[in-house]
């Protein structure tokens, strides 16, 4: 789905909730759709505030929440208490994450062998998988190498 169609969809969601799709909300949606990484509310707010000082944190928060409800934004929690969002349609529907505990970098991957193994396990237990998420935590090469050199 194109970004223009996503904007129209979000606009309709706002209207169905009795809310106006203001210029600020359009700026937030447009900026979010251009983001190529996982982003939290505060980072998006700070990014937008540089160009649009009148945008409020609460407006960014509520807009992301409505985008999540509409299926445009996917909320992800990597266990650190920070909710991050990604553009639902910009990546393969399913993917997994590898997260650096030191610098916070996040890489996405899809490994067919893992997916096949999950299916085999589900079949063995006569289990119907609805969804799953895999998050691998550790240290990226830069952080791991830096720690080894400082030891």
Structure description:
The chain is of the alpha+beta class and 151 residues long. It has two domains: 3-87, Arc Repressor Mutant, subunit A, CATH 1.10.10; 96-150, Dna Ligase, domain 1 (2-Layer Sandwich). 48% of the residues lie in helices and 17% in strands. The protein contains six helices and six strands. Strands 1-3-2 form a three-stranded antiparallel sheet. The protein has a three-stranded mixed sheet with strand order 5-4-6, with no helix packed on it. A hairpin with a 5-residue loop joins strand 2 (73-77) and strand 3. The longest helix has 14 residues, at 3-16. The N and C termini lie far apart (49 Å).
Number of helices: 6
- Main sheet: which strands, in order across? 1-3-2
CATH-defined superfamily of the largest domain: Winged helix-like DNA-binding domain superfamily/Winged helix DNA-binding domain
- Share in β-strands: 15-25%
Task: Describe the structure concisely for a colleague.
With 151 residues, this protein is an alpha+beta fold. It has two domains: 3-87, Arc Repressor Mutant, subunit A; 96-150, Ferric-uptake regulator, C-terminal dimerisarion domain (Dna Ligase, domain 1), CATH 3.30.1490.190.
